[in-house]
Amino acid sequence: MLLIGLIIFFILLIVGAPIWLSLGLSGGILMFVFLDLPLEAIISQFLIATDKWILLAIPYFLLAGNLMTYMGTANKMIGFVNHLIGHLPGGMPAAAVITATIFGALSGSATATVVAVGSMMIPQMIQLGYSKENSMGVVASAGTLGQMIPPSIYMIIYASMVQIDVAQLFLAGIVPGLVIAALLIVTAIIVSVKDKTERKKRSSAQEIFKSFIVALPSLLMPVIVLGGIYSGVFTPTEAAAVSVVYVLIISFLFNRKEFTKKNIQKSLVNSMVTTTVIYLLLGGANMFSTALTYAHVPQQITEYVSQLTLPGWLIMLLILVLFLVFGMFLDAVPILYITIPILYPAVMALGYDPIHFGVLTIACMMISQITPPVGLSLFVVSGHFKEKLSVVIRGSMPYLGALLVATIILLYVPWLSTFLTK
Description:
This protein is mainly α. The chain has helices spanning 2-14, 19-34, 39-48, 57-70, 73-85, 91-107, 110-127, 132-142, 153-162, 166-192, 205-219, 221-230, 236-254, 261-294, 297-307, 312-327, 332-349, 354-368, 376-384, 389-412, 415-418. Helix 16 (312-327) runs parallel beside helix 18.
């Protein structure tokens, strides 16, 4: 059934059907033809996918990120990081990574991070002599940090699927996110050596302090949101709503010029469009994964894996390779819904920690964002800056290598993912 389902799915993709429809139809056909389920039960699976309290956090975090982008709040944060390290060798690309790390902790969205950071940093980097490839590649890659640094939309989806505490998963993502950011910074500095660049003029202590004061309200947002979650003041879903209110307040108080009806409308429309896309993908992917569950495919694979004589670390490595192959052709949401119901029981049977597996899964989803031919961050940078996709792909290759190295480190050093949650 798994093979038949995948064949139907890829045939639908080849003929041009949207991913969510391809997943939904292939799952629906399996349930109707092979499992003889009634149509009402099949259709209800589409709606059940989004009927979870924790998933309400997704539109709120998306809206907070879009509000920061359109209201100018993000620019102040970017300006501070730029003043702080922009003058160092490879400083501008490194600043882009640091800014993406901070912004990822505010929005949870790779797309919002890429647009916000790229809009300000890419023109400056090109003006100083950094190549287009490097400038766009580093932003496309660093934008994926929004999926590992909490709050993360993909962590919310993973936690809702396997029924674990998303706050624990958020906590587990902090150190791996910083490790990945550090590797990206080192890569950015090395790659930038070949670019004949001008050094940005060193900012004075007064300029750095002034930019810090201006950016402080934005920098406090992760402290308030994550601090509220871990102290038990509010749930992750409530924290997402709080983040929207907080951004509106600081935008009204400190960015009165950009606090306009037009910018609020843009933020709302973009958030609604992205939320709709995610929820459609969730519904279609849930129909596919439900069909496989009814057919006992996860149980059969778990039994098969438990009987293998291969060491657990090698099986995990093969699972990560499978994620990466899927990532070349699919977006992260359908990958999660296709693979997690099948692989999660098998991984647990091997004795792996669900939090550790969650972090590894998110790391692979980050890589899928910049893996050609279908990498969302690559398309966002290419489309937003009207540049050839090949330019962005070439620039992202060194950073793709860094992400792969980081994922291997996380696989073989599980302590990085779990020590904060113990």
